[in-house]
Amino acid sequence: MKMKIKIRIKIKMDPFQIHRQQLIIGTWVTQIGVNFLQHICPL
Predict the structure, then answer these.
(1) Contacts of 10 by beta carbon, 8 Å cutoff, 6+ apart
(2) For position 32, what pLDDT does the model report?
(3) pLDDT tens-digit profile of 24-37?
(4) Rounded CA separation 9/43 (Å)
(5) What's this model's pTM, rounded to 2 decimal places?
(6) Which residues in 4-40 are b (16+ Cβ under 10 Å) and which e?
(7) How far is C-alpha 10 from the chain's CA centre?
(8) Among 12, 16, 14, CA closest to 24
C-alpha cells in the first residue's frame, strides 16, 4: 500500500514520469507475453 502511495505522489509531481513508466511497463508486459507464447508453441 505504501509503495502505491509513493508512486501516485511521483506521478502528480512529474507528469513525464507517468508516460515513461507506462512505456516501461508496456514493454515489460509485451516481452513476458512473447516469451510466454514462444514457450507454449515454439517457432
Answers:
(1) 17
(2) 92
(3) 888 999 999 999 88
(4) 43
(5) 0.44
(6) eeeeeeeeeeeeeeeeeeeeeeeeeeeeeeeeeeeee
(7) 15
(8) 16
Going by C-beta distance under 8 Å and a sequence separation of 6 or more, which residues neighbour residue 18? 11
The mean of the pLDDT values for the chain is 78
Residue recorded with cell 507517468: 18
Q: Per the structure block, which three cell numbers stand in for 25?
A: 511497463
Pull the grid cell for residue 13: 509531481
- What DSSP string describes 1-38? -HHHHHHHHHHHH-HHHHHHHHHHHHHHHHHHHHHHHH
Amino acid at 19: H
- Residue 2 amino acid letter: K
